Amino acid sequence: MAPKRNNIIPNAHFHKDWQNRVKTWFNQPARKLRRRQTRQAKARVVAPRPVDGPLRPVVRCMTNRYNMKRRGGRGFSLDELKSAGIAVPTARSIGIAVDFRRRNKSTESLQQNVQRLKEYRSRVVLLKKNPMPDNVQTSLSAGQFAIKKQPKSRERPQKLTEEDKKFSAYATLKKERVDSNLKGIREKRAKEKENKL
Q1: 39-60: b or e for each residue (b if 16 or more CB lie within 10 Å)?
Q2: Which residues have a Cβ under 8 Å from the Cβ of 157 and sit 6 or more positions away?
Q3: What would the pLDDT profile of 53-101 be if each residue is shown by its tens digit?
Q4: Cβ–Cβ contacts within 10 Å for residue 111, how many?
Q5: Beta 124-128 vs 70-72: how paired, if at all?
Q6: One Pfam family name from the record (predicted)?
Q7: What is the pLDDT of residues 110-144, one digit of tens each?
Q8: Alpha helices, H only, the chain
């Protein structure tokens, strides 16, 4: 087929011996075994502390596209630690990650992570490494604190009412936007009207 319009002239350079340059994955099973052995060796070294590292908070993924998903965050905020009654140095010494930058934007997430901290605190066993009280070693008495996946909630189909048919999302959003933009102006006008009377 002849080339049409103002496009690049096709002259691909297939001169290399590509058959000898194919990336193969024959080492995949051996790599799997090696990773497993490394994990087990690490577990023996850090025992009785958890292999997964410090305890992380449950946070929401960013942007509207992913904010229904939950994942592990960097560390607990200072408000969460304060609500749980744990000091920052103590938290870091008993295997709790701390994030000094994170801010709580909802009460629900704050309470959820506070509950997570309290549950961890109740199950953690402190083994003193040295006579000094600050130098402690942590051990979980039962299991890891995995972040549970949120169950998918599906709404059942229902018949459309007249109110649903008349509803316009565009008009509703526009009205809210206009109301928020004109709030100050309307309040100013109302005050001026009261002063005139």
Answers
A1: eeeeeeeeeebbeeebbbbbbb
A2: none
A3: 899 999 999 999 999 999 999 999 999 999 999 999 999 999 999 999 9
A4: 13
A5: unpaired
A6: Ribosomal_L13e
A7: 999 999 999 999 988 877 666 555 544 555 544 55
A8: 28-46, 63-66, 78-84, 88-93, 107-123, 162-166, 169-196
